[in-house]
Design a protein that fits this description.
Layout (H helix, E strand, L loop, with lengths): L1 E3 L2 H13 L4 E6 L5 H13 L2 E6 L19 H10 L4 E3 L3 H4 L21 H7 L18 H4 L3 H16 L3 E5 L3 H13 L5 E5 L19 H22 L5 H15 L4 E8 L14 E8 L4 E8 L2
Parallel strand pairs: 1-4, 2-3, 2-5, 3-4, 5-6
Antiparallel strand pairs: 7-8, 8-9
This protein binds pantoate.
Pantoate binds next to strand 2 and helix 7.
Length: 310
C-alpha cells in the first residue's frame, strides 16, 4: 500500500494503474475510519482494480464554532485498516498541499514545448495563501444541514472536486448516512460533467441501530445510550407510513415526541421529510420520501436519515 502525501505522488500511482488497464475507485474520507467507511472501501474493492482512500480533515467545511481542532486523527489505526482492506493508495495531504495553488504537485509542462511554466513558489507569491475558488451547488444546500452550517457544502464540494481532479477516478464512494452530501455531490458531478460514477452505499449501524459516525466517539455514556433514539424515531416514522399515515406534520410530531422522551440530552436541530432528489420539504408522503434529522448532544451533533415507503 502506498501512503502518498503529495498530489504528484497520487497522479503518478494512478497513471501507472491506468496504464495497466485498472478501473480507479476513490473513497474520500476525513479519517477516524470505522466500519461505515470500510464498507465503502469494500464496495470499491469489489468494483475497481485500484482503490484509493483520501484522509484529509478538510478545514473549509468546518464552521468557526465547529470541531475542526478536536476532530479525531488516529492515522496509524486508519492506515492499518486500509491495509487490511486491500487499499492500494492512501492520500494523506497536509492542508498546504491541498490549498496552496496546486500544492507541490503543480504539473510541469511537457518537454520540448518551449513554454516555461510559472514555478509553484512563484504562484504562491502571486496569489494570497489558500485558494480563491469555491464550488457552490444551489438549492440542494439550502435546507437540512445547510441551514445551520453556512458554507459547509461549498467546502465539501470544493475539496471533493479537487480530489476528483487529483485521482480522476472512474467511481467514487459515499455513505447514505450523509444523505444531503451525497445528493449535492451527485448534482455537482452531473452539472460539471465530471466523468465518474457516484456510488452511494447503505448506512452501517451499531447493534442498537445508531448510524456509525466518527463523531460517535465524542459521546459520553448517557449520551451514547440516548443517541439510539435518532434511528428509533426514523423507524417509527417508517412504521407509521407502513400503517398508512401520510401527513408529514403527524410523522414529524411523532418523531419529535419520541426524541423528547428518549433523548432528553439532545436538542433537535431539525426533523424534515423531504423529496429524495430535490430535498424540498413534503406535506404528504405519497411516494418514497426521506426522513432526515440532526440532533445536538452536548458533546456531538449527530445526523441520520431513512427512506419512507408508502
Ligand atoms: O464525508 C466526509 O467525510 C467529508 O465530508 C468528505 C466527503 C470526505 C469531504 O471532506
Amino acid at each position: 500500500m502506498i501512503t502518498a502525501k503529495t498530489i504528484a505522488e497520487v497522479r503518478q500511482a494512478v497513471a501507472a494503474a491506468r496504464k495497466q488497464g485498472q478501473v480507479i475507485g476513490l473513497v474520500p474520507t476525513m479519517g477516524a475510519l470505522h466500519e461505515g467507511h470500510m464498507s465503502l472501501v469494500d464496495a470499491a474493492r469489489r468494483q475497481c482494480g485500484f482503490v484509493g482512500v483520501s484522509i484529509f480533515v478538510n478545514p473549509t467545511q468546518f464552521g468557526p464554532d465547529e470541531d475542526l481542532s478536536k476532530y479525531p486523527r488516529p492515522l496509524e489505526n486508519d492506515l492499518a485498516l486500509c491495509q487490511a482492506h486491500g487499499v492500494d493508495l492512501v492520500f494523506v495531504p497536509e492542508v498546504k498541499e491541498m490549498y496552496s495553488c496546486g500544492g507541490t504537485g503543480f504539473q510541469p509542462v511537457p518537454k520540448g514545448t518551449g513554454y516555461k511554466p510559472v514555478p509553484p513558489q512563484k504562484v504562491a507569491e502571486m496569489y494570497p495563501p489558500g485558494s480563491l475558488t469555491r464550488i457552490h451547488v444551489d438549492r440542494l444546500t439550502e435546507g437540512l444541514c445547510g441551514a445551520s452550517r453556512p458554507g459547509h457544502f461549498d467546502g465539501v464540494c470544493t475539496v471533493v472536486a479537487k480530489l476528483f481532479n487529483i485521482f480522476q477516478p472512474d467511481a467514487a464512494y459515499f455513505g447514505q448516512k450523509d444523505y444531503q452530501q451525497a445528493a449535492v455531490i451527485r448534482r455537482m458531478t452531473a452539472d460539471l460533467d465530471l466523468p465518474l460514477r457516484i456510488e452511494v452505499c447503505p448506512t452501517v449501524r451499531e447493534n442498537d441501530a445508531l448510524a456509525m459516525s466518527s463523531r460517535n466517539a465524542y459521546l459520553g455514556r448517557e449520551e451514547r445510550q440516548q443517541a439510539a433514539a435518532l434511528s428509533e424515531s426514523l423507524r417509527l416514522a417508517a412504521d407509521l407510513v407502513g400503517q398508512g399515515r401520510r401527513a408529514a406534520q403527524e410523522l414529524k410530531a411523532a418523531m419529535r415526541e419520541h426524541l423528547a422522551r428518549r433523548a432528553p440530552l439532545g436538542r433537535i436541530e431539525y426533523i424534515e421529510i423531504v423529496d429524495p432528489d430535490r430535498l424540498t420539504p413534503l406535506q404528504e408522503v405519497e411516494a418514497p420520501a426521506v426522513a432526515a434529522l440532526a440532533v445536538k448532544f452536548p458533546s456531538a451533533r449527530l445526523i441520520d436519515n431513512m427512506t419512507l415507503r408508502p
